[in-house]
Amino acid sequence: MVLVCMRILELHCDRASYTPKEKAVQDADDLPKEEVGKQNVFENALVVFTTVEKGDNKTAVNKAAEAVRRHFTEVSAKTVLVYPYAHLSSNLAPPNEAKNILAELWMAVKTFCPSAHKSPFGWYKAFAVSCLGHPLSELAKTITSEEELGAAEKKALPGAKEIAVKAEKKPEIEDAVSQSLIQEAQMKSRFYVMTPDGKLEEADKFDYSKHGELKKFADYEIRKVRAYAQEPAHVKLMKGLQLVDYEPGSDSGNLRWYPKGRLMKKILERLVTQVCIDYGAMEVETPIMYDYEHPALKKYLNRFPARQYVVKSEDKEFFLRFSACFGQFLINHDMVISHKHLPLKTYELTKYSFRREQSGEVAGLKRLRAFTMPDMHTLCRDIEQARGEFERQFQLCLNWMKTMELDFETAFRIHTEFYEKNKGWYGGMVKKIGKPILVEMFDNRYAYFITKFEFNIVDTQAKGSALSTVQIDVENAETYDLAYVDENGAKQRPVILHASISGSTDRVIYALLEKEARKIEEGKTPMFPLWLSPTQARLIPLAERHLKKCEEILAELKESKVRADVDDRAETLQKRIRDAEKEWVPYIIVIGDKEAESGKLSARVRSTGKVEETNAAKIISEIGTVSNGIPFEPLPLPDHLTARPVI
Predict the structure, then answer these.
(1) Same domain, 367 and 267
(2) 338 shares its domain with 436
(3) Terminus-to-terminus CA distance in the chain, angstroms?
C-alpha cells in the first residue's frame, strides 16, 4: 500500500485574473474561439492552484473540496477559482485523469459556491493574483488519498514508502465525468423572460410584481444553487403518509416504496404509458446496463450531462443506463425505416434509470440516483416535421399537468441560432401557456439538443424541478447511424425528439406532495387528486354490530372500482376518524344504527371539509366521474385495518 497526494495552494485574493493563450497538451479543454485571449477577472476570490498526482481519486476530491469549503467560509470570499497548476509536484497524473479529477473538484466546490469557476485545463495562460496578505490568505495543503497501487505504479512514485492502510481500489471509470456535464457547467448562457405576445426581455429587467413564482424559478435557474439548506417539506409527508422512505441498505437516492406509494406510482406509470401508446408510440423494453466500449455509446456518454454507476462483469465494465436513449436508438439502428414510417415513435417506461447525482443534491423524491422515467423518442424526416411533433408533444405535456392539477413555470432552453430562425414558433407555444416563461439562450451547444422545454414546479424552498420535457436532437442520428430511405431511395438522417410527457413518476409524487405542503403552510387541507388517493373511501363501524353493514357497503364500492377499506380496530371513534384524516382519505363514512337501517350515509368529505348526507351510489358516481380515463388499480393492502402490519 502507498499514500499518494493531491497538492493545493490556496490564495485569498482581492483580484485575480487569467488569459488563455494556446493549448499546452492534447487533452486540453476545448474553448470557443472568442474565449482564447480573453481576460477573465475575479474579485474577492479564493484561488485554488491544484496539482493532481498519480492515484488521486474520489476520496482526494472530497477531502480537497472540504478543505476549500472551510477556507472559503473562514475568509468570507465571494467566489472560488479552481486553477489547474502542474508545478506543485513532479508526480503528475496522466492528463486525461487529471482533467477528470479537476472537473470533479470544481463541481464539488460548486455545491457550496455556485459561482465557482475553473480555468481551462491544458492551456498556457497568463495570470495575475493580488493576495490580501492576512494570516489566512496563503495556505498550502497536501490532500492524502489512500489507494492500492500496482508494482509498476509504486516504482513510478519517487521516494514512495509502503504503509499499512486499509484501501479500496475503485474502477477508473467510476469517477469519470461526462464532458457534456463539464461544458454545461462552464456554459455562459443568457436568461430572458418571454411574454405571451412573444416579446423577449432580459430576465433581470423584467417586472415580476405579478409573477412571484416565476421570479423564484428564475432566481433558482440563474443562481443554480441545487443543494437544500434543510430537509425538503415533502420528505416528512412521504414518510408520514407511509408512501416511500430512504433505504439504509442501499446507496443514497435508492428508495423503498411501501404499498400505498407503489400504488400511486403504478397508476401514474400506467397513465403516462397509455398517453404515449394512444399517441402512436411502439412500446419496447431494453437492458439497464450497457458496455462502456460500444462505439456509439462511448461517444454518447460524453454528450449527455449525467454521471454513471459502474457494473463489472468478468473482464468488462458496464454502466447503468440513465435514460432509454441507448436501447431505443440501438433498436432503431436495426430497423429498415422508410419515409412513410415517419414520424416513428418508440417508448419505454425505464424502471429504473440511474444517475450518480452529487450527494449534496440528492433529496427525497426530487433528485434520486434510481428513478422511473417514461421515455419516448420520435424519428422525424426533417426539422419541419420535428417542429410539428414537438408542438403536439408540448400539448400532451400541457394536458398532463392539467390532469395532475399542478401549477408550473415553463423554461425553454434554446441555441441562439435556432431561436433566430424560429421566433414566431416559440411565441405561439408561449401563447398557449398564457403567462410569461423563462428562456435560457446559449451560443455554444454543450449537448446534443438545439432546443427543449421543461414544465417546472417551484417547491416550498423556492427550488425548481423539471417534470414534462421535450428536446430536439440534431446529433444522435449520426452517432447511432440512424437512417431512413426517402422517396428517391436515398438514405437520410432523421431528426430526433426526446420526450418525457410526465417526467419521472417519482418526481411527480414529489411535486404533488410539495403542492400540499404549501397548502398546509397556508392553513388549508391537503389531499391528493381523488383518482390518485390510495384509499378513496373508509368505512368506520360505530360498534362491532355495525361491521357487517360496513362489509356490505365495502363490497359494493370495491365492485364499482372504488378503493375502500374498513377500520375495524378496537380504537375510539375519534381516533379512527383522526387517523383517516392523517391519511388524507377523501371520504370518511361512519356507520351506526341509523345508517344501517336507512341506507343513507353521512360522509366527511375532505374536499369540502363538511359532513354530507350521501349514499354508496353517489360516492361511486363522484369517484367514477373524476377517474374517467384513468387506469384503475385496486388497493394493494388488506381491506380490514386489523389485518395490516404497522410500518
Answers:
(1) yes
(2) yes
(3) 46
Question: Taking CA 203 as the corner, what is the angle to CA 197 and CA 207, rounded to the nearest 5 degrees?
Answer: 70
Burial of 571 per CB tally in 10 Å (0-12, 13-18, 19+): middle
Distances (CA, A) of 13 to 19, 62, 118, 139, 212: 17, 24, 16, 12, 37
State the pLDDT at residue 247: 93
Same domain (yes/no): 200, 264:
yes
Write the CATH number for 542: 3.40.50.800
What pLDDT sits at residue 159? 36
Measured distance CA(45)–CA(78) in Å, rounded: 6
Q: Specify if 306 maps to a domain.
A: no
Read off the pTM. 0.75
Query: Burial of 506 by CB count in 10 Å (0-12 exposed, 13-18 middle, 19+ buried)?
Result: buried
Residue 82 to residue 45: CA distance in whole angstroms: 10
If asked whether residues 373 and 429 sit together in one domain, one would say yes
Q: Is residue 180 part of a domain?
A: no
What residues have CB less than 8 Å from 643, skipping those under 6 apart?
none
Give CA–CA dist 296/275, Å, rounded: 30
All three cell numbers of 500, joined, read 418525457
Q: 639 is written with which cell numbers?
A: 381491506
Question: 3-class SS at 455?
Answer: strand
Amino acid at 167: A
Residue 193 bridge partners (DSSP) = 201, 438
Kindly report the CA angle at 608 between 606 and 611, in degrees rounded to 5?
Answer: 75
pLDDT value, residue 150: 42
CATH number at residue 68: 3.50.80.10
* CATH number of the CATH domain containing 274: 3.30.930.10
Q: State phi, psi for 517 to the nearest 5 degrees.
A: -65, -40
Domain containing 165 equals 2-170
Q: List the alpha helices (DSSP H) in 174-288.
A: 179-186, 212-223, 233-240, 259-279
pLDDT for position 162? 32
Q: 247 in a domain, yes or no?
A: yes
Same domain, 486 and 578: no
- Distance of alpha carbon 293 from the chain centroid: 26
Q: How high is the mean pLDDT in each 10-residue block of the chain (647 residues)? A: 70 93 86 88 94 84 88 89 89 86 88 89 91 80 58 38 33 44 62 94 95 95 75 94 95 94 98 98 95 78 69 87 91 96 97 81 88 97 97 97 96 94 92 95 85 96 94 94 96 97 97 97 96 98 95 96 97 97 97 90 94 94 95 97 93
Give the domain-ending residue among 142, 170, 198.
170
| Domain match, 448 and 365 both | yes
Instruction: Return d(Cα 496, Cα 377) in angstroms, integer.
Output: 7
- The cell for 303 is 454528450
Say how far apart CA 105 and CA 559 lie, in whole Å: 59
What distance in Å separates the CA atoms of residue 616 and residue 34, rounded to the nearest whole number? 71
Supply the pLDDT for residue 92.
87
Nearest to 591 by CA among 568, 620, 609: 568
pLDDT of residue 97: 85
How many structural domains comprise the chain?
A: 3
For residues 374 and 480, state if they share a domain. yes
Backbone angles phi, psi at 281, to 5 degrees: -80, 145
> With 0-12 CB in 10 A as exposed, 13-18 as middle and 19+ as buried, what is 105?
buried
Model pLDDT, residue 187: 57
Give domain status of residue 204, yes or no.
yes
C-alpha cell at 326: 441507448
Amino acid at 596: A
C-alpha cell at 522: 397556508
Q: What is the DSSP letter of 551?
A: H
> Are residues 143 and 269 located together in one domain of the fold?
no
